[in-house]
Amino acid sequence: MKGIILAGGSGTRLYPLTHVVSKQLLPIYDKPMIYYPLSVLMLAGIREILIISTPQDLPRFEQLLGDGELYGLRFSYKVQEQPNGLAEAFILGAEFIGDDSVCMVLGDNIFYGHGLTGMLKNSVKQVDETGGGVVFGYWVQDPERYGVVAFDDAWKVTSL
Fold first, then answer.
1. Is 6 helix (H, G, I), strand (E, B) or coil?
2. How many helices (DSSP H) and strands (DSSP E) are in the chain?
3. What is the pLDDT of residues 86-133, one digit of tens each?
4. Do the Cβ atoms of 96 and 78 come closer than 8 Å?
5. Is the C or the N end of the chain the one with fewer CB within 10 Å?
6. Angle in degrees, CA 126, 93, 151, rounded to 5
7. Residue 13 half-sphere exposure toward CB, CA atoms < 13 A
């Protein structure tokens, strides 16, 4: 399985900081925000990762992360000219993905908690064995601000 980190967007709720720096490059405690979703992919055992960002910010991610060798990973990079949504990440990453399965994580999402590593590895195993997909989400009071996952009666995702 390969990974994609979508690290674009304008970060309007963090203006004026994000007027000059990508939200995913801002420090959260002791490291840039992008390290958190990167660690999620690493915990899942994913070692080949495509980072997608804006034309302005992508060089900064390349400067920060390099080719991934320092982390035991292999990074590729791709520009997303306009914020055209999550699905475009799969279009932009089609060549990178090839025939492999893929896990996409947003560059500003932080997942944590007891049992996370096991849950991630089980999800990768499930997708590799049976196909399909897994969506991780978190219940919030105002989902319209963050995104809504809708399910049918069989708990299959019908929209994001």
1. strand
2. 5, 8
3. 889 999 999 999 999 899 999 988 888 888 889 889 888 988 888 877
4. yes
5. C
6. 45
7. 4
The reported pLDDT for the residue numbered 131 is 80
| Residue 82 domain flag | yes
DSSP letter string over 75-86?
Answer: EEEEE-SS---S
Q: How far apart are CA 28 and CA 42, in angstroms?
A: 18
User: What is the total count of domains within the chain?
Assistant: 1
State the Cα–Cα distance between residues 76 and 78, nearest whole angstrom.
7
CB 52 within 8 A of CB 6: yes
Q: What is the pLDDT of residues 33-56, one digit of tens each?
A: 999 999 999 999 999 999 999 999
Residue 152 included in any domain: no
Per the structure, the complete domain to which residue 16 belongs is given by 2-131
Q: What share of the chain is helix, strand, coil (3-state, %, to 5)?
A: 35, 20, 45
